[in-house]
Design a protein that fits this description.
This protein has 16 helices and 17 strands. The chain is an alpha/beta fold. It has 3 domains: 53 residues, 3-methyladenine DNA Glycosylase II, Chain A, domain 3; 250 residues, TIM Barrel (Alpha-Beta Barrel); 120 residues, Rossmann fold. The strands form 5 sheets. The chain has an 8-stranded parallel sheet with strand order 10-9-8-7-6-3-12-11. The longest helix has 16 residues.
């Protein structure tokens, strides 16, 4: 039976050492109880307490770390079936496929193109994380060579795909330092693949013909000492694949089935005849409940909407999406360009910045932290007051970038104009339009 946060806290050392990543042992206990942390994160827990807490602290779906470097990521670790219940934590990882018979020059060119698929949104860098290297001809030397090339010359992390333990072993020898995911242990090769993963401390994908078939394989691998597993139930028909994803998630979260308590890997590339259809299928797996999605290729028109879908789904529904506080350059502003200020609610930022761009008037847009509230709501909640806005303008550094002393505030925050003027002595506070749609005309009229 699961323990409460307080029950877990009583078994912890209560040192508040912060080495687990949270400020207090109580906070760590609460994270353990909710499945958001692992007991191994506490370096001082006693052996007796560890034995008592092992089962209670394990998340229902184990988080699995894949890769090393700037694109290292985790998959799994989820604690709820539906996003609105709490939130999802570890976003779906995207992979593009390269086959082992691809020429080195072509691989290098493809990696360069794929690496450019990076998009800035709400202060985040959205990009795919993985390359799935697929053995198609049994050439272990070529496979290991490409694995080494990808691992050493790109930011991408790897999925090594082969039915041969010998070929996988050769690739691990050249690219194991990047902590690749090995795909896949089956009933025919489970012992050999399990040994490679165990000896090299690597995550291992498990493939069967059905969800039931996975259970025997995961139980065997866990018995060997492996913990970082990724599940593939083998379904490649769309309806069945969706049923399997939901079934695995429900079995782990609702039925407490530890044999299925691992993230999943899905293959839209094996379920469609063109990249556009792959994108549609991939979007389904982002929502329900693919931990890793493998595509045949990575193209802007497909991966960009998938990255946006992922961003929206894996954003905490109880916290508004926000933009980082600071100064944003719209166009190519200079020392005489207008200065505007608004809140850090992401939707507000995108609407306001879009209207400024539409005006063709270069401007400085100041984004003040309002805890993700819109202008009117932030003002009503005391998060966008005149004193706070004035103090923010002083400290943000905009005074070093412009010669003039005029600040344009949102029309819905007209009430704070006087307080801002008192805080910013010598500045002129201009009240802008109430609706962002009128902002472009407002700026053009000032030229």
């Amino acid at each position: 039976m699961a323990l409460t946060g307080i029950q877990i806290f009583k078994l912890l050392p209560k040192t508040n050492c912060k080495e687990c990543g949270v400020p207090t042992c109580l906070a760590f206990a609460m994270n353990l109880a909710s499945g958001k942390a692992e007991l191994d994160s506490c370096p001082y827990v006693s052996d007796d307490a560890r034995a008592q807490l092992a089962e209670a602290s394990a998340p229902p779906i184990r988080p699995v770390a894949i890769g090393k470097g700037v694109r290292a990521a985790k998959t799994g670790g989820e604690t709820v079936l539906c996003r609105h219940e709490k939130t999802f934590f570890n976003p779906t990882l995207f992979a593009g496929t390269i086959t082992s018979d691809t020429a080195v020059a072509v691989v290098e060119a493809k990696l360069k193109v794929w690496n450019a698929l990076q998009y800035e949104r709400v202060g985040l860098n959205l990009r795919p994380e993985l390359v799935a290297l697929k053995d198609v001809n049994g050439d272990g030397v070529a496979f290991a060579t490409l694995a080494k090339l990808i691992a050493e010359t790109s930011e991408f992390n790897l999925i090594l795909m082969s039915e041969s333990a010998e070929i996988i072993g050769g690739a691990v020898a050249t690219a194991g330092f990047k902590r690749p995911l090995i795909y896949a242990a089956t009933a025919a090769n489970v012992d050999a693949f399990g040994k490679i993963a165990l000896d090299n401390d690597l995550p291992l994908a498990v493939k069967a013909d059905s969800v039931d078939g996975l259970i025997a394989l995961t139980d065997k691998l866990v018995g060997m000492g492996l913990k970082d597993l990724v599940l593939d139930p083998g379904s490649r028909e769309i309806k069945k694949a969706l049923e399997d994803q939901v079934g695995i998630r429900r079995a782990a979260l609702k039925a407490g089935n530890r044999s299925l308590g691992f993230p999943t890997i899905t293959f839209p590339c094996e379920m469609a005849s063109n990249i556009a259809t792959e994108g549609l299928i991939a979007s389904m797996f982002v929502a329900k409940y693919g931990g890793i999605v493998v595509m045949s290729d990575l193209t802007t028109e497909v991966i960009f909407p998938l990255l946006l879908e992922r961003l929206n789904i894996f954003t905490d529904p109880q916290r508004p999406m926000t933009v980082v506080e600071g100064i944003f350059e719209i166009g190519a502003p200079n020392e005489n360009s207008p200065v505007l200020v608004t809140t850090n609610f992401a939707l507000t930022y995108f609407i306001v910045s879009g209207e400024i761009e539409a005006s063709k008037v270069p401007a400085w847009l100041l984004i003040k932290d309002s805890e993700g509230l819109s202008v009117l709501t932030a003002w009503a909640a005391g998060k966008f007051g005149g004193d706070d806005v004035g103090a923010f303008v002083k400290k943000c550094g905009i005074m070093d970038k412009v010669k003039h002393t005029e600040l344009i505030i949102p029309g819905y925050a007209a009430a704070i104009a006087g307080d801002v003027e008192e805080e910013l002595s010598g500045w002129t506070i201009t009240v802008g339009p109430r609706e962002a749609a009128h902002l472009a005309g407002f700026l053009r009229a000032r030229l």
